[in-house]
Specification:
By secondary structure, chain A is an alpha/beta fold. Helix content of chain A is 37%, strand content 17%. In chain A, strands 2-1-3-4-6-5-8-7 form an 8-stranded mixed beta sheet, with helices on both faces. The longest helix of chain A is centred in the N-terminal third of the chain and has 15 residues. By secondary structure, chain B is α+β, with helices and mostly antiparallel strands. The chains are: A alpha/beta, B alpha+beta. At the A-B interface, α1 and α8 of A face α2 and β4 of B. Bound molecules: thiamine diphosphate, iron/sulfur cluster and magnesium ion. The site of iron/sulfur cluster has 12 residues of chain A, from α7.
Amino acid sequence: MAFNYKPYIREDKFPNIWCPGCGIGILMKAIIRAVHKMGWKREDVALVSGIGCTSRMPGYVNFNTLHTTHGRALAFATGIKHARPDKHVIVVSGDGDALAIGGNHFIHACRRNIDITLIVLNNMIYGMTGGQVSPTTPAGYRASTMPYGNVEPNFDTVNLAIGAGATYVARSTVNNPALMERQIKEGLQNKGFSVIEVVSNCHIQFGRRNKMGDQLVLRHWIKEREVPLRKAKDMSPEELEGKFVIGTFVKKTRPEYTEEYAKMVERVKGASK
Amino acid sequence: MAKPKKKFRIEVNEEWCKGCVICVDVCPTNVLDMKDMLSKWEGMVVYVKDIDKCIGCDLCELSCPDFAIEVYEVPQEEEAQSG
Ligand SMILES: Cc1ncc(C[n+]2csc(CCOP(=O)(O)OP(=O)(O)O)c2C)c(N)n1
Ligand code: SF4
Ligand SMILES: [Mg+2]
């Protein structure tokens, strides 16, 4: 209640640039609360992004922030974590940023299990650049580059992360800000690579092309498609088509990349003495 | 003696509010509403219509993308003082 965000934001940059009703601000607040609950100092946290509406977030928060190039946020973040394994590295990425142009970095960060928390804001479209189709635009829905309805099959962020080896994997939506915060906190606690997908509304670029140009209409559309993981377990793949299963899918431990790397360095140093 | 009902206070930052109506939509007890403000992008901002109905669930604050609404619990003594 009445959480004090002031120490964590750059007030002179407000109001933020996002369209009225855009879910990205809701995610930004959940990240701040999760970091606060971890008890971390602001100077020990780095928030890294690529390019896109979602990726504007580092401009507004008072951590160490890095706004990089499209799709490469994880590459920069890997460099930061390598150089300063003592720091806490968080990446925010759009669905295009993380899964299209940045898809390769995504799977390899999962495979390495590097201690970074990636939050993918999936608004099912390229928001910033004018509504081009993304790997998560639902089948049949329109995008500027799919004016007759999307014919491409999707990537499922969660399944992709699980398949590639991430050690914490969860999904929530903009309709569940408290759950979002809990999942981010669990991701931050995980010593390894965490992937948290947040399904969000871009009513401007996705919604308007699909008769859902109002933020509330698109938020309700998302809500109607939410299925808790508990319930999803008893549902068939056909029943789950087009649904957003929410919950925590994976929570496990596996050797972490920077620790393994440090061990190797020690080993090689020992051998050369 | 019955426990006194908790009371709340809601603060709105009209400068940051973009009039997206999400808070009005998520409030389970109809505390909030919109009022005209033609200088704003959407021509309106949120206002507190009926604070007595507030149950302090915090959903409006959690769901506001613009850091523009805050829910505070009013301490009981303070409330007694203010009449
Ligand atoms: C190398 C490169 N290619 C393309 C672009 C143009 N571009 C900027 S943002 C973007 C897509 C953004 O979509 P997404 O990652 O889903 O973010 P959103 O705006 O939806 O949050 C593209 C294609 C770019 N900036 N750099
Ligand atoms: S274009 Fe879409 S994603 Fe970008 S700020 Fe507007 S609503 Fe949000
Ligand atoms: Mg997007």
